[in-house]
């Protein structure tokens, strides 16, 4: 089991292009338009897995990301958020993991605030079984807004083995909020599972509106 309480002891055999990061908007390079991620085939979830430190759901879907085709593979959750923007850390972050035919990974991170309860999240909560993998049927592509705003940079997985070369799209205006009872449920079932922000080490971060 991943030990977040001693994350400074995690083995990083890679380098200094790690995730998550603390993004200072004033230091980013402004690009024109929204983040170029477009869903081509609905994101459907069919399996819910208790990963001990989070819930992971696997499924199918297709998206064009920076005009390249990617398959959606799995979604999982972090509380509190891993990415921090101008000192602000949202209480919840959703990671949509994608891969293309040559194995490149793109994670679309949704920074989730407290608001109205989300129905798919409630289904995930209601369907959860400790230590088990259960079948489910959910669609979640509606979580991505029509005009995603946020950031793009090159980083890593945020859990061991911390593999680098992972592309990140951090979405600050997702079309999903959770309510405080959903957040409380998650915090009661899982210890804080956010990796601390890592050094930017000279990397460029692009911002999109
Ligand atoms: Zn994650």
TrEMBL record:
Enzyme class: lyase
Family: Belongs to the alpha-carbonic anhydrase family.
Record carries keyword Transcription regulation: no
Protein's recorded name: carbonic anhydrase
EC number(s) from the headed UniProt entry: 4.2.1.1
Record keyword Nucleotide-binding present: no
CDD domains xrefs: alpha_CA_prokaryotic_like
Top-level taxon: Bacteria
Occurrences of domain Alpha-carbonic anhydrase (ranges): 1-209
InterPro entries: Alpha_CA_prokaryot-like, CA_dom, CA_dom_sf, Carbonic_anhydrase_a-class
Species for this entry: Lentilactobacillus fungorum
Keywords linked to the UniProt accession: Lyase, Metal-binding, Zinc
Catalytic activity line of the entry: hydrogencarbonate + H(+) = CO2 + H2O
């Amino acid at each position: 089991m991943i030990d977040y309480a001693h994350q400074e002891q995690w083995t990083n055999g890679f380098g200094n292009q790690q995730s998550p990061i603390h993004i200072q908007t004033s230091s980013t390079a402004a690009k024109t338009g929204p983040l170029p991620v477009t869903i081509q085939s609905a994101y459907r979830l069919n399996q819910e897995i208790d990963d001990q430190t989070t819930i992971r759901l696997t499924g199918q879907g297709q998206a064009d990301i920076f005009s390249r085709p990617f398959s959606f593979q799995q979604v999982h959750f972090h509380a509190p958020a891993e990415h921090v923007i101008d000192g602000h850390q949202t209480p919840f972050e959703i990671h949509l993991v994608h891969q293309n035919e040559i194995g490149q990974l793109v994670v679309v991170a949704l920074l989730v605030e407290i608001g109205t309860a989300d129905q798919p999240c409630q289904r995930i909560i209601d369907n959860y079984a400790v230590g088990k993998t259960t079948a489910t049927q959910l669609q979640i592509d509606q979580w991505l807004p029509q005009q995603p705003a946020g950031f793009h940079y090159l980083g890593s997985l945020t859990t061991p083995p911390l593999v680098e070369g992972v592309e990140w799209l951090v979405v600050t205006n997702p079309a999903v909020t959770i309510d405080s009872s959903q957040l409380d449920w998650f915090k009661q079932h899982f210890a804080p599972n956010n990796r601390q922000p890592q050094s930017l080490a000279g990397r460029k971060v692009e911002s999109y509106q």
